[in-house]
């Protein structure tokens, strides 16, 4: 027993020493590693969640150029922050960062605090990000344990606990506290992350080049690829939706209609093409693609409910937007504006009024059909319906779109430009 404990202790010492030496030799030159600026480290850590380093680098440069300090981020219009984040996904992260920047400005004079409780109190900062900021920027001996780190530790120490469970994370955090060499928290935590990113990768760990292979218990037991143990999350629920690409005419010729989402809920305040859930098939079976005529009819009524007079003219394309809990399959129809709608300033009034009236009064539409909800995801007060705009390609720079709509709009304007050249 004593011998076992001794071996375990040796394996820990070996791990810390060899990992650090390897990191000093092999670490990548990443923009946020060139400074110990806690603001930069915080932004990079939030951006890196669920996103690859190569993708993050250009976003990081743009973000820091546009918002070089905590104050500049706190004082910026939310629209600008979302625009800078556009394409990175998980937009609540961007909103939380700005909220937290305001906290830092108001409570800590614009300086990211070197204090555990204060960092934990910032919006959107969980145990991993707090640990990363405190250790990397301030060299505090705090663990920063994410999925990559848990993978490395599960393999090296042959831990079979389910990493999807909270107590496993707590156990791993305790282990990291033991492993951090004195005065080396910043480099050690980054080294762990680096090993997970470059060597101890999810599918094919490169054990032969690994600096800690000699004592890796998972490797020695031949089960490194079975680790970590992780129970599968529930798959996201599929949802079929009908979307309208409304092409303007007259004063709106060359433009398409976009709407802003409500100020809370899914993709809050972002811009999109109008869309609604496809109705259930007969007998309440799960939603599947509707026959084209039924889909167009449904879409026409949805547009009408929203105060948008437009006629669907045919299916254009399908697109997917994946959230953690839901997958939208958007069947996008090209629609033609039937009579000119008021311009931007009045857009909200017209768009909102028709919908609010229909939603509140349960009134029937002119064709006798029941109105549909403008937004159908429980996103609040019918008065909070955002705005609509008619935009051309150049206007896209002024609005923040979720990826799927960015791609759809770019495809549409590409097609229009090509058609114009022929
Ligand atoms: S030896 Fe292989 S499994 Fe073990 S830590 Fe290194 S890369 Fe991961």
UniProtKB/TrEMBL annotation:
Its cofactor is [4Fe-4S] cluster. GO terms for biological process: base-excision repair; mismatch repair. Residues 47-198 form the HhH-GPD domain. GO terms for molecular function: 4 iron, 4 sulfur cluster binding; 8-oxo-7,8-dihydroguanine DNA N-glycosylase activity; adenine/guanine mispair binding; metal ion binding; oxidized purine DNA binding; purine-specific mismatch base pair DNA N-glycosylase activity. This is Adenine DNA glycosylase. The lineage of its organism: Bacteria, Bacillati, Bacillota, Bacilli, Bacillales. Binds 1 [4Fe-4S] cluster. Keywords: 4Fe-4S, DNA damage, DNA repair, DNA-binding, Glycosidase, Hydrolase, Iron, Iron-sulfur, Metal-binding. It comes from the Bacteria. Belongs to the Nth/MutY family. The keyword Iron-sulfur applies. SUPFAM superfamilies: DNA-glycosylase, Nudix.
